[in-house]
Amino acid sequence: MSAFSHFRVQPGKRLRLADISPQKTKGFDGDKEQGRDRVQQLNNRLEELQEQLYAQGKHRLLVVLQAMDAGGKDGTIRSVFDGVNPQGVKVASFKAPTAKELAHDFLWRIHPHAPAAGEIAIWNRSHYEDVLVARVHDLCNETCWRARYEHIVAFENLLAGEGTTILKFFLHISKDEQRQRLQERIDDPKKRWKWSSRDLDERARWDDYQQAYEDALSATSTDRAPWYVVPADRNWFRDLVVSEVLVEALAALDLRLPPGDPGIEGLQVT
Ligand code: ATP
Ligand code: MG
Hints:
The chain is an alpha/beta fold. It has helices spanning 32-56, 73-80, 99-102, 133-136, 142-161, 175-187, 198-204, 206-220, 235-251; strands at residues 60-67, 89-93, 120-124, 164-172, 227-231.
């Protein structure tokens, strides 16, 4: 049983975000300093596992990150994958679709970013925007977003069936934490580049987004592509949960470095 399996959204069960405190640190007894040490250890382990994954060229790993604005997706990628060889790790950040993308089905722009054998793909936002922002802004009515849940489950089943391990994380922050982080984007000149004038409009729709997340995560958490709701007000705990879940999943894959050519033993390079 995994250390943080209590944050996994059980398939078929109704998720209630209000029942999960964004400040929670359940599953880890230590303090922030100990948490950071553990993240460092996990990071070293992740480096090893990623090298094996890449060298073996057999398995694929997809990591989906979703969050409200300022939820910490960028910081999670930076800390959890710090020092991991960029060769073999691809990050795709999904922004508002272009006219050409909008002219296709919603998965058209997503699929090319799925990981190849030996790769880790990290999706910073994803196809879930098409049942989140698209729902909240009425770009897709109820019939449309409900149908998309089914398309998403089918799509992820396809990826998983073809050998991709899928882990999905919703970084769960409180409304007050978001207020502080957005305020910092205004007050701190070094963070101003992250500010978007849309952030305040989106924040005003907080409750609609929470509802959309609850419905989407409840409908699409499956055994093959589970969602984790990660309490994310504390960065160290967020990094710890994501790292631990990733390392556990990779460790379960029975990765190994290829043995090399037969007869290599004892060969002298002249
Ligand atoms: P941060 O969390 O740090 O604010 P971000 O992921 O919001 O970073 P931005 O460049 O600020 O990055 O915003 C990307 C925007 O693109 C988001 O507002 C998101 O909702 C929007 N977006 C992504 N996919 C879609 C989609 N399919 N349809 C409409 N909007 C989308
Ligand atoms: Mg943003």
